[in-house]
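User: Could you go from structure to sequence for me? I need the amino acid at each position, not a summary. Structure tokens:
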């Protein structure tokens, strides 16, 4: 009798044990990181009681139709060209099914994370819950560690928390895209709360997010008022760019039009054509934003420029912060940025920066230029695909997104991929990366430019994650067939099926930028992207003035044969990196300077002729 009841007791305990344990459901690994990204080191385990702000990105409906729907409004040959969608229609079309919402909530509830703690975002895209490390480790069968990263020689450290892999019950997998924070190095380590300080913001700068600009240091202005174009080979000014890119235009529809430039913490400077700020003075702090805004604002004047101060890039899942702001359906945070942690914008006093966003309340600008980026191998494919889909939705809304393609040729910043894995180093870029060119030494604004080979090398190559889009197929196939690069699959994705980048280029050398109280010579695809953004903003202005739509997702258009006269093909220079000469600029599209640099006058005519 005694024995029996003990046995029964044990039996019932073990039954309870099984039911309470996630191991009863068959589990599948949902995401796994192959390696720790360059420069990161595991430092310690996280305390089990630390609270993690968990976010479950639900599978979206119709997402497999995104590319088709995007092409429908973006391809000039489509009858719906320019008929962009409203944010509401987009949110509705891509909202996850009620079944996905219910399944994930039931799962969390069955794991003891009570329903009352769970929040569903307005778009139904995300389920959020604050849970302890202990709870999350059990839920996801994962182990969290703190990782630290020292950034370059700037004595800037950042830390992130991450796990190596995580799993979910098999029946949940089909309902979830991604769970954050997990394997990607984009999550700050809680609790971070002490008095806000500049140095702490600085600490989080730059780890996986690189600002694509380099300075050669302070210089004297060489520009000669009598002949402002004579020194363009030494110092680029807005006048040089106007001459290079056939850019003369008077803006008309400035109230309807908009142009946004993405800034990053720490950029605590108020910028108005090179004004001095007093808190922090160095290129690392101000250079990138000064550059972007000085050129962007000058070239589109009097068009207002919106600065998207994307809060804290490292912690806030990087560009996800920006996406939150622009697109409510993406919003991952309840209240948007944390005022004690994030940037000090808007600066209402200067130059017309609009009120920045919090969560889904900012109407996206028609053109958004970003001069920051990270490396493709540093984030998982699901993470990047989800983000890419969000850029696709913005394209459907008529927004043109421009990204710098990086400054390290075929390599990343101080990093190339282990050849054993066969993976190429692709600077993490999506949609419209802009490469860099230069005016050759002693050449003038009337001579052809080369790929930039001073201080920086234009980022370019082929993706390991994103497939060759239809609009680019002819250009890439022609490049690989007629100019086969002297490399194998060890160096790059030579399958002929991979997305090539950049799409186009603009000057990225010798920009004269007012930073703090002097001038510096700045190099980078960071220079190129806002310049192209300014030109597209002018084209939007002209189209809006005649009652047409903004140009939106430009890729299917710029690759058309009929548009090639709108570009100056770049056929000199290369983008060395990883101990190789990299790729070479050739006639037609190439993975150094894309289709070439813009000829504004001709592009304007071409785009005005479209419906
Ligand atoms: C998580 O905690 C933060 C900070 O206390 C709070 O602002 C947020 O609303 C919480 N989120 C959820 C989903 O409860
Ligand atoms: C540029 O011109 C200067 C002066 O004429 C000359 O000394 C220099 O070698 C030239 N540089 C190149 C790269 O041709
Ligand atoms: C090359 O790109 C294709 C198309 O995106 C992809 O299927 C393949 O996995 C890539 N190869 C490597 C080695 O990453
Ligand atoms: C500049 O653009 C105009 C159209 O506005 C065009 O007629 C002209 O040919 C272009 N100039 C060059 C040098 O391409």
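Assistant: Here is the amino acid at each position, in order:
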């Amino acid at each position: 009798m005694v024995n029996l009841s003990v046995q029964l007791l044990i039996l019932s305990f073990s039954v309870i044990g099984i039911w309470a344990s996630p191991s009863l459901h068959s589990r599948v690994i949902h995401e796994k990181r192959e390696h720790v990204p360059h420069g990161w080191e595991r430092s310690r385990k996280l305390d089990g009681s630390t609270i993690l702000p968990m976010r479950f990105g639900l599978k979206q409906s119709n997402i497999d139709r995104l590319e088709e729907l995007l092409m429908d409004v973006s391809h000039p040959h489509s009858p719906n060209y320019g008929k962009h969608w409203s944010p509401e229609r987009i949110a509705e079309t891509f909202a996850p099914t009620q079944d996905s919402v219910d399944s994930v909530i039931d799962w969390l509830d069955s794991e003891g994370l009570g329903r009352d703690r769970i929040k569903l975002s307005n778009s139904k895209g995300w389920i959020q819950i604050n849970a302890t490390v202990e709870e999350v480790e059990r839920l996801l069968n994962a182990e969290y560690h703190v990782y630290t990263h020292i950034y370059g020689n700037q004595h800037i450290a950042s830390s992130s928390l991450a796990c190596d892999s995580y799993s979910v019950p098999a029946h949940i997998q089909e309902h979830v895209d991604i769970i954050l924070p997990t394997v990607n190095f984009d999550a700050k380590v809680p609790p971070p709360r002490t008095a806000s300080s500049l140095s702490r913001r600085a600490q989080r700068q730059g780890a996986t997010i690189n600002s694509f600009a380099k300075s050669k240091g302070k210089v004297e202005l060489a520009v000669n008022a009598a002949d402002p174009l004579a020194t363009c080979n030494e110092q680029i000014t807005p006048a040089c760019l106007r001459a290079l890119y056939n850019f003369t235009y008077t803006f008309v529809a400035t109230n309807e039009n908009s142009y946004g430039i993405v800034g990053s913490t720490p950029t605590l400077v108020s910028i108005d054509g090179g004004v001095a700020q007093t808190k922090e003075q160095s290129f690392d702090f101000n250079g990138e934003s000064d550059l972007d805004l000085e050129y962007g604002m000058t070239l589109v004047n009097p068009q207002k420029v919106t600065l998207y101060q994307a809060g804290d890039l490292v912690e806030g899942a990087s560009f996800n912060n920006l996406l939150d702001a622009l697109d409510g359906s993406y919003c991952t945070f309840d209240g948007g940025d944390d005022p004690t942690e994030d940037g000090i914008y808007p600066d209402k006093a200067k130059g017309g920066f609009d009120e920045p966003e919090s969560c889904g309340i900012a109407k996206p600008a028609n053109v958004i230029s970003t001069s920051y980026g990270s490396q493709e191998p540093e984030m998982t494919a699901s993470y990047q695909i989800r983000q890419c889909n969000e850029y696709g939705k913005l394209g459907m809304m008529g927004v043109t997104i421009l990204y710098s393609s990086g400054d390290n040729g075929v390599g990343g910043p101080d990093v190339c991929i282990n050849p054993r894995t066969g993976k190429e180093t692709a600077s993490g870029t999506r949609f419209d990366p802009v490469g860099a060119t230069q005016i050759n030494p002693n050449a003038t604004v009337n001579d052809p430019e080369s790929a930039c080979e001073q201080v920086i090398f234009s980022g370019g190559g082929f993706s390991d994650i994103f497939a060759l889009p239809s609009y680019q197929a002819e250009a890439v196939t022609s490049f690989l067939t007629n100019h086969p690069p002297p490399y194998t699959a060890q160096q790059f994705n030579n399958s002929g099926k991979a997305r090539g980048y950049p799409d186009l280029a603009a000057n990225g050398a010798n920009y004269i930028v007012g930073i703090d109280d002097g001038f510096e010579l700045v190099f980078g695809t960071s220079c190129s992207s806002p310049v192209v953004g300014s030109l597209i903003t002018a084209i939007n202005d002209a189209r809006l003035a005649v009652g047409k739509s903004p140009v939106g997702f430009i890729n299917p258009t710029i690759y058309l044969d009929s548009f090639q006269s709108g570009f100056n093909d770049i056929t000199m220079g290369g983008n060395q990196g990883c101990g190789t000469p990299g790729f070479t600029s050739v006639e037609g599209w190439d993975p150094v300077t894309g289709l070439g640099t813009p000829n504004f006058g001709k592009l304007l005519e071409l785009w005005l002729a479209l419906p």
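One structural detail worth keeping in mind: Residues 422-423, 464, 467, 493, 495, 497-498 surround 2-acetamido-2-deoxy-beta-D-glucopyranose (ligand 3) (CB under 6 Å).
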